[in-house]
Design a protein that fits this description.
single chain, alpha/beta, Leucine-rich repeat, LRR (right-handed beta-alpha superhelix), Phosphorylase Kinase, domain 1, Transferase(Phosphotransferase), domain 1, nine-stranded mixed beta sheet, 20 helices, Protein kinase domain-containing protein
């Protein structure tokens, strides 16, 4: 026992000493000068690197050990407003950081060429150099990395050009080399067999313009790297496609599938002034003599005509028989039944492609381009997820979601992913999400990359979205500060709203049975680098509650019920998704952030007051609620007005009067037709058009009724003048019941033949 206590005391003492060493202030004047030089040349803000503060303890992204700087990361930082006017690749301060082991500037703009001194004057201990998506251009220095001990060099997503230096592949200890998605040209760099002293992990040069015969060069690369990716180039030669460790897709190889068209390869090689290796062409078959050929052709022609005539007669007989049988049955089906059948046929013929593999193998779109796809070799293990997320530490924690904690991770091959860690209390929510992903994939749904169960926890990995979610994209700070953000312009906001509507249309109309998201809000609208929408937060998704057995009177009674939110839990109805989407649209129009994710009394009161200010007959009414930072001209102001009317119709207090997702998408694609149709039609014409279920009349009538009926948090109705009246008053209840079949907006389930989105 005394020996054990002595051993424990020694371990605790060593831990305390290590912690004290790690938390030591910066002690090197050279390192301090280098950091301040970087702060000035990169134009970093005082928020991340405050002046008159110790860099080791107060500067974000600075890692120290024993009073020396060993790591610098400016990933995700932004320059000051003055420095952003003339950004440049100016990192001369790195020369003073002689103990530096890591420099990460991924996503931080460094426009310009890689400095020539990167060849010889990089810090000797430097092991990781990460410059992904940093706007770097020009050519690489010929001896890049020869002065350091690089193990990872990540340069993907830039505009680098020229040839890849062959000396780069001979750097000893280099394990990961990612040069993908650049403008490199020339032949594939060769590497001598036995170069380097370790078995490297990855060589990725996909998405460039390399050309030439590359069979031998790829063979040499396989001896140096375990995984080789040369896809999306113009490499030539013969290749055996049985090697799973090499990706040669979208090239000009012969003997393997998935290559470019031969004519495209010829055009590229012609422009480069080099020769494409000829692909063997089968010898032509011997042609028969002319006289015999004419005789055979005549006989074949007679046979084809006879067969066609017989088929035509059989077809006409079958058609006549079907028409007679249908007439005998009386044709008792109405227009609604025919329309339901048409909609069912459209649903069966939709473009949904069920995924036959397990959820762990679900990929993004099947037709995604190589640059849009994420290269993930094999299935992810628990150890890889722990390493990618930094041990699921707080530095990588993005937020606490409804069903688990959300982390940002970087895989070993440099790909960014999002990992959701689900505890035992929320595991039951995973099954419905995995069931959806195992059957469907769509360009507007965030791709699921993998699923892993470990003991009592489960992990889901998703594709990383560079612009995060709509809440972050819309979040603005005071414009008079140096750190202020520009507001999203109206074109981008309308594009985002249309993308969410497309996702809803896929879930409601193209899936069988229809799926309901039940959590549409700004935080679940994810955005890629081009502000394209990917709908996330799929933990609450489920199939829509069946309404096939409900009769007309059930739908009438349902139309007089209160808001869906009064039921227990999120309702599994498409109208609830439309209601939540209306709040997102109103958030885009007004700039009132957080309203789409809140259901408290204050938010509902704000919704009631805001929707009362939107008038179908007064365009100037929109000026009272529009985002003050949204600068629009007269044409765009009319679009904002129309979109606000769409939002108001989606927020109707009665679910049956809300438009379908298909109608909402049609309106967002043609917003001006919503208001201009209202200005051209009088009330009598509007009443006559209601029976035709046109999508314009849906929003016109829905807006008129909603102008007088807006639900308040107390359960009472607010009319347009702001006066309060009971929601269950006798006059309203009886008149609403009598008008339900004649005057209300068309049921979202009833569609015209010409409204197919």
């Amino acid at each position: 026992m005394p020996q054990c206590r002595l051993l424990l005391a020694a371990v605790a003492l060593l831990g305390a000493v290590a912690a004290a060493v790690a938390q030591q202030p910066l002690a090197s004047p050279s390192d301090l000068a280098g950091l301040y030089s970087l702060r000035a040349s990169l134009g970093l803000r005082a928020r991340e690197w405050p002046a008159r503060a110790d860099p080791c303890t107060a500067w974000a992204g600075v890692m120290c050990r024993a009073g020396r700087v060993v790591g610098v990361s400016v990933a995700g930082f932004r320059r000051t407003r003055l420095a952003s006017r003339a950004p440049a690749f100016a990192v001369d301060g790195l020369r003073n950081l002689t103990a530096l082991e890591l420099f990460n500037a991924s996503g931080f703009p460094l426009p310009g060429e890689v400095p020539a001194w990167f060849s010889r004057d990089l810090p000797q201990p430097l092991a990781v150099l990460d410059l992904r998506y940093a706007a770097v251009n020009g050519t690489l220095p010929p001896d890049l990395g020869s002065s350091g001990n690089l193990t990872r060099l990540l340069l993907s997503g830039n505009s680098l050009s020229g040839q890849v230096p062959e000396t780069l592949l001979s750097v000893k200890g280099l394990r990961v080399l990612d040069l993908s998605t650049n403008n490199f040209t020339g032949e594939l760099p060769s590497v001598s067999v036995g170069a380097g002293d370790v078995a490297a992990s990855l060589f990725n040069i996909s998405g460039n313009s390399l050309y030439g015969v590359a069979t031998d060069a790829i063979g040499a690369l396989k001896t140096r790297f375990r995984l080789v990716d040369v896809s999306s180039n113009y490499l030539d030669g013969n290749w055996n496609g049985s090697d799973a460790t090499v990706d040669v897709s979208v090239n000009c190889f012969s003997g393997v599938s998935g290559q470019r068209r031969h004519v495209d390869c010829e055009d590229f090689y012609r422009r480069e002034g080099v020769r494409l290796v000829d692909i063997p062409v089968p010898a032509p078959l011997p042609q028969p003599s002319p006289e015999k050929s004419r005789g055979i052709s005549k006989n074949v022609l007679i046979g084809v005509l006879a067969a066609a005539a017989a088929l035509m007669v059989m077809f006409l007989v079958a058609l006549l028989f079907c028409l007679m049988r249908r007439r005998q049955r009386g044709g008792g089906r109405g227009a609604e039944t025919n329309e339901e059948g048409a909609r069912g046929m459209r649903r069966r013929d939709s473009s949904v492609n069920p995924v036959a593999s397990s959820p762990a193998a679900v990929s993004p779109r099947a037709d995604a381009t190589p640059k849009d796809a994420i290269t993930v070799f094999g299935e992810l293990t628990y150890e890889q997820l722990v390493h990618a997320t930094g041990g699921f530490g707080d530095d990588n924690l993005l937020k606490h979601g409804h069903s688990g904690d959300i982390y940002h991770g970087v895989l070993e091959n440099g790909a960014h992913v999002i990992v959701k860690k689900i505890g035992t209390k929320s595991i039951n929510k995973v099954s419905s999400e995995l069931d959806f992903y195992s059957r469907y994939s769509h360009e507007r749904i965030v791709p699921l990359l993998g699923h892993l169960a470990n003991n009592d926890e489960e992990f889901l990995s998703y594709k990383y979205m560079p612009k995060a979610d709509l809440t972050n994209a819309l979040h603005k700070k005071p414009v008079d500060t140096e750190d202020g953000l520009h507001s999203l312009d109206w074109i981008t906001r309308l594009k985002i709203a249309t993308g969410v509507a497309e996702a809803m249309c896929f879930l409601h109309d193209e899936c069988s049975p229809p799926f309901v998201h039940r959590d549409i809000q700004a935080s679940s609208v994810l955005l890629d680098d081009k502000f394209e929408v990917r709908l996330g937060s799929m933990s609450n998704i489920c199939a829509q509650q069946s309404a096939g057995s409900q009769n007309v009177f059930s739908r009438i009674l349902r139309s007089s019920k209160s808001l869906d939110k009064n039921t227990s839990g999120p309702p599994a109805t498409c109208s609830y998704d439309v209601y939540c989407f209306g709040k997102v649209i109103l958030e885009l129009v007004t700039g009132n952030f957080g309203v789409s994710g809140s259901n408290d009394a204050g938010s509902e009161e704000w919704l009631a007051n805001t929707t009362n200010r939107i008038s179908i007959s007064d365009k100037d009414s929109i000026t009272n609620i529009i985002d003050p930072l949204l600068v629009v001209d007269e044409d765009h102001l009319e679009e904002v007005w129309a979109v606000a009317i769409v939002a108001k119709t989606c927020l109707n207090s009665k679910p049956s009067r809300r438009p379908s997702a298909r109608y909402v998408l049609k309106a967002l694609e043609n917003p001006l037709r919503v208001v201009r149709a209202g200005s051209r039609s009088n009330s009598a014409r509007l009443r006559s058009s209601s029976s035709r279920s046109s999508w314009q009349s849906t929003f016109l009538q829905g807006s008129r009724y909603q102008s007088y009926e807006v639900m308040s948090p107390s359960g009472r109705m607010l009319d347009r003048r702001g006066s309060v009246r009971s929601h269950i008053s006798g006059g309203e209840a009886s008149s609403s019941f009598k008008r339900s079949l004649r005057e209300i907006a068309p049921d979202p389930q009833v569609l015209d033949e010409d409204v197919a989105v």
